[in-house]
UniProtKB/TrEMBL annotation:
C3H1-type domain span: 21-38
Gene3D superfamilies in UniProt: YVTN repeat-like/Quinoprotein amine dehydrogenase (2.130.10.10)
Enzyme class: transferase
Transport as UniProt keyword: no
C3H1-type zinc finger span: 21-38
This protein's name: Zinc finger CCCH domain-containing protein 48
């Protein structure tokens, strides 16, 4: 996964005639050219990581690390070396991976009835019990870890520096079905649920401040961008929320897709422009400029993408239903001068 060398190899393999280049190729997966997996300029496929036997459900890239972590419904997590692209470790978890995040030296993995916590520096491992059913979402705020669970609860643990352990701190009740997405922003915790709602929680009091009911199906992903909250749903919409003078969130814009939306991820392109990656259940990932929602490109996948993760220097990762992880990057645009 050597980025510089990878770029050169990708460019070298993107030869071929016009029909291959334009995405009208009939060879499908048998085509030798990498073009068939993306449409649009400014980004390219670097490499593919193969090893998982079932869908990739989570990807984590610890800051400053040279290792990539992936989790799957095949009940394993895999560790990949970022220089070689080789799998250097397989961890059998005994349950399907529902989510995975990294924070500092820690990697947290949600599986049924547990959260596993791995310290990548001292190689210690903790197992946090309390969840009922699958753990679909995890987020860290300061020294608190929050987990969204299948029974609709959001569990919180507080890190104790003296004991180097996470201790149960709270259980946030309110959702009637599973909590599948969590994000922190502006001293608020936002939770998206299978009950079609988003709840806004005060991080100091852990009280629910507002319930957002504009989505008509499962709220699959929530994301904070600038002063806005973005949410996506199986109702085929991305909604952009903005706080009114009263402090309550209201929809300021709704973007429609032709298919249900599985996850959102925000990043910047090679020019520093904000980009929204939007994975849909028709095996595509759309790339949009923000705030205009002008389409920058599209990634085509063998099966639906449920995991997207940002890496350093314009790198991003997608994981699909076949178990394949793809590594992409934004290409620095060549500057031209006119006489």
């Amino acid at each position: 996964m050597d980025v510089d060398g990878g770029n050169k190899r990708v460019y070298n393999r993107l030869g071929g005639d016009a029909k291959h280049q334009k995405g009208s190729c009939s060879y499908g997966e048998r085509c030798k050219f990498l073009h068939s997996w993306s449409v649009g300029d400014g980004f390219s496929l670097l490499t593919q990581l193969e090893g998982h036997q079932k869908a990739v459900s989570a990807i984590a890239f610890p800051s400053g690390s040279d290792k990539l972590y992936t989790g799957s419904t095949d009940e394993t997590a895999r560790i990949w070396d970022c220089q070689s692209g080789k799998c250097v470790g397989v961890i059998n978890l005994g349950g399907e991976v529902g989510c995975m995040i990294s924070e500092g030296p820690w990697v947290f993995v949600g599986i049924p009835n547990f959260v596993k916590a791995w310290n990548t520096q001292n190689l210690s491992e903790l197992s946090l019990n309390g969840p009922v059913g699958q753990v679909y979402a995890l987020v860290v705020n300061n020294d608190m870890l929050f987990a969204g669970t299948q029974d609709g609860s959001i569990l919180a643990w507080k890190f104790n520096v003296a004991t180097n352990c996470f201790e149960p701190a709270a259980s946030l009740k309110g959702h009637s079905r599973g909590v599948v997405s969590l994000v922190v922003g502006a001293n608020r915790l936002y939770s998206g649920s299978m009950d079609n709602t988003i709840k806004v929680w005060n991080l100091e009091t852990l009280q629910c401040l507002q319930t957002l009911t504009e989505h008509t199906s499962v709220v699959m992903s929530v994301l904070c961008w600038d002063q806005f909250l973005l949410s996506c749903s199986l109702d085929k919409t991305v909604k952009v929320w903005y706080a009114t003078e009263s402090g309550n969130l209201e929809v300021t814009y709704s973007h429609n897709e032709e298919n249900g939306i599985l996850t959102l991820c925000g990043m910047h392109d090679s020019q520093g422009k904000p980009i929204l990656l939007c994975a849909c259940n028709d095996n595509t990932v759309h790339l949009y400029d923000l705030p205009s929602f002008a389409e920058r490109g599209k990634i085509l996948t063998k099966q639906e993408v449920r995991a997207i993760q940002i890496g350093p220097n314009g790198i991003f990762f997608t994981g699909d239903g076949t178990g394949e992880v793809r590594v992409w990057n934004w290409i620095a645009e060549a500057t031209t001068t006119t006489q």
